[in-house]
Write a structure and sequence with these properties.
- By secondary structure, this protein is α/β, with parallel strands linked by helices.
- The protein is about 30% helix and about 25% strand.
- The protein is built from eleven helices and 21 strands.
- The protein has helices at about 10, 25-30, 40-55, 70-75, 90-100, 115-120, 130-145, 180-190, 210-230, 255-270, 285-290, and strands at about 20, 25, 35-40, 60-65, 85, 105, 125-130, 150-155, 165, 175, 195-200, 205, 235-240, 280-285, 290-305, 305-310, 335-340, 350-355, 360-370, 375-380, 400-405.
- The strands form four sheets. Strands 3, 15, 16, 17, 18, 19, 20 and 21 form an eight-stranded mixed sheet that branches.
- The model has no long low-confidence stretch (mean pLDDT about 95).
- The structure holds pyridoxal-5'-phosphate.
- The site of pyridoxal-5'-phosphate (PLP) has 14 residues, from strand 14 and helix 11.
- Pyridoxal-5'-phosphate binds near residues 204, 282 and 285.
Length: about 400
Amino acid sequence: MKPMGPIPPAFAAQRGALTIGGHDATALVAAHGSPLFVYDAALIAAQVARFRTAMPAEIDLHYAIKANPLPALLERIALLVDGLDIASAGELARALAVKPGAAISFAGPGKRDDELAAAIAAGATINLESAGEARRALASGERLGVVPRLAVRVNPDLELRGSGMKMGGRASPFGIDAEHAASVVREVIAAGADWRGFHIFAGSQALDVAAVIETQAATLALAARLAEDAGAVPPLVNLGGGFGVPYFAGDVALDVAAVGAALGEALAVRGEVLRDSRFAIELGRWLVAEAGVYLTRVVDVKQSRGETFVVVDGGLHHQLAASGNFGTVVRRNYPLAVAARMGTAAEGAMSVVGCLCTPLDRLGDRIALPPVAVGQVIAIFLAGAYGATASPAAFLGHPAPAEIVV
Ligand SMILES: Cc1ncc(COP(=O)(O)O)c(C=O)c1O
């Protein structure tokens, strides 16, 4: 028997039939088909509210669309946050469709000229990833006759300790090395751009509260030092994000109240050059992961050499992360449940496997589940971020999953 991650608090106490946003999960599958992603809008709103309560007033909240770009979800979250962070022209189109005039920032390496042009024309801020990109963005603005909004993404000389995905403190395709950032700032200002400030993103999926606090303080200090070097006041300092969610056994939710309190203290003593700056934190998974559940129907239950396999009609082509093949080194179990039997005692160890013809398609590895029969629905939690759009949907030609917001 192997452990599972913790079922998110909104579902953990449920007994009997699983409900999502007040809807019976099995009935949702009957109505919308299987497999199905369901996102609970009220849980997302509650998470935004939790952030607002915890954070100092100087902090804006940006949503990183990459975590979940479903238009029906985006249109709700866009109303609740102060800005949208995009990573492509496709995400730009989605952002503009749900919130014309939204504050948009565009980060990511390899922005094509057509993407730069579309974003600059739309008034988005480009988070510059290199000196070469700075030149291309300036040229794009000139061609369009638009003063481009440019921020410098810094590859910090610090990393977010304990983060699942480190994006700082080393050689990196992301951002301009801190030691060269100030000179790029001076260049874009001299070229007549509207310099918007710094974007400093040090890592993702961090649950270690001390590490997040320490990184935010170091990020503030770095921004102040770079602003002094550049001789310019940054209108906005995007402090990155990296707030993690508990996916696996032993993971504990990040104490955002403690993060907010410490950030308030760090802001109070920030460098004078940042006195009039605003600040932003940009989050993806922390806002949406726990609000999503992937529901998939059992097609077969089989025994093989003493092990029970629950075979479902979904799989890693929809929810790659739950199979352990999206950025994890060691495969561990996401939280799963039999949707009609929340709180029922486990019968024994079973493996939940997807319908793909590869041993990688394992959604639950020797986990404790109650009795389960063909036709029942398995719920895989923490499916609100990096699910449907971060999975190889075309692999093996199965249908795309339905996605709904309730
Ligand atoms: C620049 C940037 N912003 C935001 C995010 C979102 O991270 P998360 O979903 O962990 O909050 C990422 C993730 O890779 C990123 O690279």
